[in-house]
């Protein structure tokens, strides 16, 4: 791989599995020998909580050594990288203060490009093969920042009656970024929280397959209690229970991502 590939996980609907996909795909890629940097862009801190206990995550949030401080002050994000307990896998943690990031961005020059500039030296160094960004479930200036900093976007969609709600709005928002992020591409839609016993899984799949020019990943992530237990223990599911169905699915999804970045 010649350069860092930046992928954001976006959906303006909460509960779609963004943080779960970002953390577990990131960990899976690291076990495949890739150097991975995770960026927690959400005030809910879920990506950070996937690797550290709550008290440690709150310590990051309150110390100023987090994404909010870097973006607010327009600093190089390289200074805010923290190693996770796992080889080849680092993270820039978030802060609950990210809830006010829209206000902080409002008066800044070229405010849509703050994150891209912050990542510039990291990408130029080639230190990481992948940079994965977990976006908040919103549409606005901060998410536009994330899109402008990314090469690809993965859209996790929950296989539920409301899973598709707002998806059209998100694609419309994406269209509005084309002039300032002309190189951004949708890598694909990842169907999550699948329960094949329920009819809306099939309905969700059929609806998404009709979306023109957007790939649906072959790997679908099923409902699995191992994921919840892994999150409760602040570990990737591949660490908590490597033999679980979801662990194997995240490995397969990471391999699809790898192939699309070649």
Would you spell out the secondary-structure blueprint of this structure?
Layout: E1 5-9, H1 18-31, E2 36-40, H2 46-49, H3 54-63, H4 67-72, E3 82-83, E4 89-92, H5 101-106, H6 114-125, E5 130-134, H7 141-148, E6 152-158, H8 167-176, E7 185-192, H9 199-209, H10 225-232, H11 237-240, H12 245-260
Helix pairs in contact: 1-12
Molecular structure report:
Helix content is about 40%, strand content about 15%. It has about 260 residues and is of the alpha/beta class. The protein has one domain (about 5-260): 3-Layer(aba) Sandwich (Rossmann fold). It has a 7-stranded mixed beta sheet, sandwiched between helices. Strand 6 (about 150-160), helix 8 and strand 7 form a beta-alpha-beta unit. Helix 1 crosses helix 12. It is globular. The N and C termini lie close together (about 5 Å). The mean pLDDT is about 90.
Number of helices: 12
**How many whole angstroms does the radius of gyration measure?**
17 Å
Q: Provide the residue-averaged pLDDT.
A: 91
N-C termini distance:
7 Å
CATH architectural group: 3-Layer(aba) Sandwich
CATH class: Alpha Beta
In the sheet with the most strands, the strands line up as 3-4-2-5-1-6-7
Strand % is 5-15%
Structural class: alpha/beta
CATH topology: Rossmann fold
**Please, what is the CATH homologous superfamily?**
P-loop containing nucleotide triphosphate hydrolases
User: Could you say how many structural domains there are in total?
Assistant: 1
Shape label = globular
């Amino acid at each position: 791989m010649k350069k860092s590939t930046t992928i954001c996980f976006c959906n303006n609907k909460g509960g779609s599995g963004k943080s779960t996909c970002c953390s577990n795909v990131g960990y899976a890629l690291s076990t495949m020998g890739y150097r991975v940097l995770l960026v927690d862009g959400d005030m809910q801190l879920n990506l950070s909580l996937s690797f550290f206990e709550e008290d440690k995550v709150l310590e990051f949030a309150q110390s100023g050594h987090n994404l909010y401080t870097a973006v607010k002050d327009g600093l190089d994000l390289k200074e805010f990288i923290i190693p996770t307990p796992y080889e080849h896998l680092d993270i820039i943690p978030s802060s609950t203060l990210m809830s006010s990031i829209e206000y902080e961005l409002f008066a800044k020059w070229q405010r849509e490009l703050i994150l891209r500039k912050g990542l510039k030296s990291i990408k130029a160094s080639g230190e990481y093969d992948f940079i994965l960004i977990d976006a908040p479930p919103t549409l606005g200036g901060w998410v536009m920042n994330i899109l402008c900093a990314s090469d690809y976007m993965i859209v996790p969609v929950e296989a539920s009656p409301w899973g598709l709600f707002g998806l059209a709005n998100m694609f419309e928002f994406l269209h509005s970024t084309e002039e300032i992020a002309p190189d951004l591409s949708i890598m694909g839609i990842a169907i999550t929280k699948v329960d094949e016993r329920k009819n809306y899984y099939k309905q969700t799949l059929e609806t998404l397959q009709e979306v023109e020019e957007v790939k649906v990943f072959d790997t679908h992530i099923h409902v699995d209690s191992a994921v919840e237990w892994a999150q409760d223990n602040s570990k990737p599911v591949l660490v908590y229970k490597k033999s679980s169905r979801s662990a194997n699915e995240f490995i397969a999804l990471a391999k699809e991502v790898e192939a699309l970045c070649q």
